[in-house]
Design brief:
Structural class: alpha+beta
Number of strands: 3
Pfam family, one: HTH_17
Helix content: 40-55%
Protein name: Helix-turn-helix domain-containing protein
GO molecular function: DNA binding
Largest sheet: 3 strands, antiparallel
Radius of gyration: 11 Å
Distance between the termini: 31 Å
InterPro entries: HTH_17, SinI_DNA-bd
Length: 61
């Protein structure tokens, strides 16, 4: 995996147009996968974001 495939919390917040609170709720519930790099750096794989959006679209159909 390339490092540019990993998104920061602010990047994902902007893409989904949600608050930090909402994003961390999605992560805690397991709806959106993420990884912790080092002690405090949380990253969201771009594939996990794409999977989440795909699931939302399928549920809306």
């Amino acid at each position: 995996m390339k490092t540019d495939d990993m998104l920061t919390v602010p990047e994902v917040m902007a893409k989904l147009k949600v608050s930090r609170w909402t994003l961390y709720t999605l992560i805690r519930s397991g709806e959106l996968a993420s990884v912790v790099v080092g002690v405090r750096c949380r990253r969201i794989p771009e594939s996990a974001l794409n999977d989440y959006v795909t699931r939302l679209r399928e549920e809306a159909a």
